[in-house]
Amino acid sequence: MVLKGKEQIILHSTMKCYTPYISPFDPCPPVWKKCYSTPPNLYITFQPMHSNQFATAEEALYHGTLWPCLYDPYYPKRAGDEN
Hints:
- By secondary structure, the chain is mostly beta strands.
- The protein has one helix at about 55-65; strands at about 1-5, 5-10, 15-20, 35.
- The radius of gyration is 18 Å and the shape is elongated.
- The model has no long low-confidence stretch (mean pLDDT about 80).
């Protein structure tokens, strides 16, 4: 994350993907690409001063964090998704 004034620019992706080894002897159908989510706190080495906060306590509790830069929405995998 790069801070420009009060504006935050995110230079990373929290969704990572990789190609696992596919064995010719594996009885299961192959999964060509596996993806996983990493939390945003991995990319923030320190808490910047004067970070924005959610406006209300209800909104912060709903998101599970006080700071929007640490919020990571979870998108569950749907049936039929390839990754």
